[in-house]
Amino acid sequence: MSLIDVRSVSKTFILHNQGGVQLPVLRNASFQVTAGECVVLDGPSGTGKSTLLKMLYGNYRADSGQILVQTASGIEDLVAIHPHRMLQIRRDTVGFVSQFLRVIPRVSTWDVVCEPLRRQGADESIVAERARQLLQRLNLPQSLWSLAPATFSGGEQQRVNIARSLMVEYPILLLDEPTASLDAANREVVARLIEEARQRGAAVVGIFHDDGLRSRLADRLYALESAQ
Amino acid sequence: MHETLTDYNFAYLDEQTKRMIRRGLLKAVAVPGLQIPFGGREMPLPYGWGTGGIQVTAAVIGPDDVLKVIDQGADDTTNAVSIRAFFAKTAGVATTEVTTEATLIQTRHRIPETALTSGQILIYQVPIPEPLRFIEPRETETRKMHALSEYGVMHVKLYEDIAQFGQIATSYAYPVLVNGRYVMDPSPIPKFDNPKMHQNPALQLFGAGREKRLYAVPPYTDVVSLDFEDHPFEVQSWDSPCGLCGSTDSFLDEVVMDDAGTRLFICSDTDYCRIQRERADG
Amino acid sequence: MVEPILSARGLTREYAPEQGCLEVDLDVWPGEVVGIVGESGSGKSTLLRLLSGQERPDAGTLSFTDRAGRQHDLVRVSESAIRQLQRTAFGIVHQNPRDGLRLRISAGGNIGERLMGVGARHYGDIRAQAVHWLSHVEIDPARIDDLPRYFSGGMQQRLQIARNLVTNPGLVFMDEPTGGLDVSVQARLLDTLKRLVHDLGISVVIVTHDMGVARLLADRLLVMRFGRVIETGLTDQVLDDPQAAYTQQLVASILQVS
After folding, report:
1. Which end of chain C is more exposed for a tag (fewer CB within 10 A), N or C?
2. Residues A160-207: pLDDT tens digits?
3. What is the interface pTM, i.e. ipTM, of the complex?
4. Is C248 within 8 Å of A59 when comparing Cβ atoms?
């Protein structure tokens, strides 16, 4: 069963403040992802991989087409739903692991990581247990947990980001170059975590430049072509 | 040669003014505790000396009335004497110092100790009629607050007292809720007198001359002092009785007797004190 | 799907031709933060005043559902009812805390006022509530008897928030709550707001010209220009993929501090 069904999605950026120049970035992109499958978006730079991934999260808008996802309420088209509904879908259905941590001042690593599961109303002991597991697996020492990530290295911040994004077991998981700033050992940890997500039935869509990760995780590649 | 008028109209005010004030008083009686504006006149004494009280008295007094005037409970202070003389001259009415003999009592800052009876009228002199003025300077806003019963701030004032002094420190002009609806400033009477206002058989009228407001508490109206459940309303008490009559249930003034600082506590209500002394003598 | 707690359709208040707030549609759901952004004169403050009942619209509808599920037609309701809502079901946090506080009443009295206004008559309980809310907004409870005149701007603002939250409103309106505060104080206040929104399940409508504040706090954004909403959507979508020319301009002008 497809958890994600992208149908003929197109997008053109219009830069109004630069003479209205148009930059077509996607043209009739279509693919499906089933539960337990990992599809890697493939193609040279500028072919809209990141844009497409962000559209699956409602972060970027589609000009036309449909993005159908399977939620607890049935099949919904992310292109057409109300923004308020998208907020709920982000909470319960679709998770996004970005390339960098968006730093919020003064909030501790622990609270940053716990927030997505707390927001769902989960019991604090369950939240704490899961946070502990993820932080430990991602090799973040306990001494850092009470500190705000603002002063951490890029790699440490990204591991906090990954821990946070994996707290909730989303049916759909989106990954945008999650390991770009990590060393080999931590890349291995992340690969393992993604495999586990796949095994529990999540539909995974990712952008990886690392060939090793790609070949290990991808069930299929979806190749994007230039929309020009 | 034509004749010039040399006499005052009865009770000084012209009939139209009395009519206007009476209409205001009727409204005030109909809505207990609500401030009613009135067209205050120029009186032969400045604001702050009882012009409101005098105008109310002048509007309701009749030739058969017997007038008592007290100032801080005493009949013999300068102001009480002057006002009594004023009405004696302009209305030709009988005057008295005996509470039970009076039909009209004009008062500044006290309620007589002797209980009032049905048919008597008590007229209070009021400086600032608006109980909310301490916190809200805008008249437009205070009118709305009364209209909408937005009285939270009154309890805030009492809260502040307790926070600062450990108890409600307001000891005079203590705010009351009249007829379960309007919050009223009872004029600067000591809080000791507040309970007397409740369910009083007499008609209580209030006049503020500078602010040009009238208000009233009809006979047998509920008047309840504001308080908190855990800081209930309490009246003042003294350690010693009145030094002249021995009363233990009247409001006492503290009087310094000599340069050494000797103090004597005596009843503020002179008529009441006299009655107690006479009773004691025989 | 859950119903919105506040719904506006065609909301209009026109001071002069094309000036004010024109034909605005807006929904606010429980537990979400809606940001209204735009430059000075865009109509955002007018919109906020209309939504919070501080001003009546010339046209349009506005409906509010309180925590008990009762619906209120905010255009037609009496002034008495509006004032009552503003003291209980709404919170209104003014840009300048001095407009939203009684400066000569203690911090505790400021917080307790709304409770006393709805009939609270136990001094000890009122005081306990004040202590509770002071800690909630990270003001040292030992300052409960201090006058807000002597508080810093950030503290005054937090006191204003506490004063509003004490009656458990479902909806809080804020007009530039961080304006006039310096950067580190702002960060602390935004933090407090985020936490309160989450912990108390309140909805917030916040007007700001600061995109950083919008991104941090708001779930959804409305972009206003010349009195009209020219774009709306999820905050990150509006800021990352702006569609309208003006929005693109607005976003491009944000100073990037990486």
Report:
1. C
2. 999 999 999 999 999 999 998 899 999 999 999 999 999 999 999 999
3. 0.89
4. no
- Chain C residues within 8 A of A59 when measuring between CB atoms: 234, 236-237, 240-241
Q: Please name the helix (run of DSSP H) or strand (run of DSSP E) that holds residue A221, with its range, or none.
A: strand A220-223
The confidence band for B222, taking pLDDT boundaries of 50, 70 and 90, is very high
Question: What would the pLDDT profile of B150-172 be if each residue is shown by its tens digit?
Answer: 998 899 999 999 999 999 989 99
Q: What is the reported pTM?
A: 0.86
Spatial separation of the C-alpha atoms in residues C160 and C139, rounded to whole Å: 11
What pLDDT digit, counting tens, does each position of A13-27 carry? 999 988 999 999 999
Q: Is B156 on the interface with C (CB under 8 A)?
A: yes
**Active-site residue, B273 included:** yes
d(CA A113, CA B143): 54
Query: Which one-letter DSSP state was computed for residue C244?
Result: S
Distance CA C162, CA C185 (A): 17
Amino acid at A136: Q
Q: Is B243 known to be catalytic?
A: no
Report yes or no: C43 and C224 within 8 Å, Cβ to Cβ. yes
C32/A87 CB distance under 8 A: yes
Phi-psi region at B109: left, alpha or beta (left = phi > 0; alpha = psi -120 to 50): left
* Interchain CB distance below 8 Å, C249 and A54: no
Tell me whether A124 touches chain C (CB under 8 Å). no
Asked if B33 is an active-site residue, the reply is yes
Which structure tokens are listed for B226?
């504001």
pLDDT, tens digit (0-9, with 9 covering 90-100), for C135-149: 989 899 999 999 999
Q: Looking at the complex, does the CB of residue B134 fall below 8 Å from at least one CB of chain C?
A: no
Looking at residues B215-231, what average pLDDT do you find?
A: 97
Surface-to-core class of residue A143, CB atoms within 10 Å of its CB (0-12 exposed, 13-18 middle, 19+ buried): exposed
Active site residue B245: yes
Contacts of residue A142, defined as CB under 8 A and 6 or more positions apart, other chains included, come to A135
User: What's the pLDDT at C1?
Assistant: 59
Average confidence (pLDDT) over A152-164: 94
Q: By three-state DSSP, how is residue B231 classified?
A: strand
Calpha distance B172→B184 (Å, rounded): 13
Among residues B251, B281, B249, the alpha carbon closest in space to that of B266 is found at B251
Q: Does A touch C (3+ CB pairs < 8 Å)? A: yes
Q: Are B108 and B71 in contact (CB under 8 A)?
A: yes
DSSP code of B49? S
Q: What is the DSSP string of B49-118?
A: SSHHHHHHHHHH--TT-EEEEEETTBSSSHHHHHHHHHHHHHH--EE-S-GGG-SEEEEES---SSPP-T
